[in-house]
Design a protein that fits this description.
Helices cover about 35% and strands about 25% of the residues. It is of the alpha+beta class and about 130 residues long. It has one domain. Strand 3 and strand 4 form a beta hairpin. The protein has a five-stranded antiparallel beta sheet with strand order 1-2-3-4-5. The protein has four helices and five strands, in the order ααβββββαα.
């Protein structure tokens, strides 16, 4: 699966190339440790990133179950964690700190790509997730 047009040098393509390099590193480390990168998770992650041209670069790790997980955190300790499970489904964790309160809104579950985007909007976390 290509992540951009050949010869493209935009910031979007550079970000995608960084993700591809990170996936290669994770895959090599997993093989050394006897783990396998779930190919459905890898495809799912790439599809999601391609569907969001203005997404910020997140932290990408490989879970023990072979799935890719990306996280975004801001200086207010708000967090979005997305585990890519395949078939355009994502397991998510969203933490949203309320202004002037100690309370934290927490949401976990599974949803589609569009559902995740709606949750990010509903929790007012666009500035965390998008450039």
């Amino acid at each position: 699966m290509k992540l951009g047009h050949e010869g493209e040098t935009s910031g979007k393509n550079e970000k995608h190339m960084l993700y591809l390099e990170r996936i290669k590193q994770l895959q090599a480390a997993a093989e050394e440790d006897g783990y396998v990168l779930n190919s459905a998770s890898k495809i799912n992650f790439k599809q999601f990133i391609l569907s969001e041209p203005n997404i910020r670069k997140g932290n990408l790790i490989l879970m023990d179950n072979g799935n890719l997980r990306a996280t975004w955190t801001d200086n207010k300790r708000n967090r979005i964690g997305l585990q890519f499970i395949g078939m355009q489904m994502i397991q998510y964790l969203i933490l949203k700190h309320r202004p002037h309160e100690k309370l934290v809104s927490r949401s976990i579950g599974r949803d589609s790509f569009n559902g995740i985007k709606q949750l990010i909007d509903a929790f007012d976390l666009k500035s965390l997730f998008y450039e």
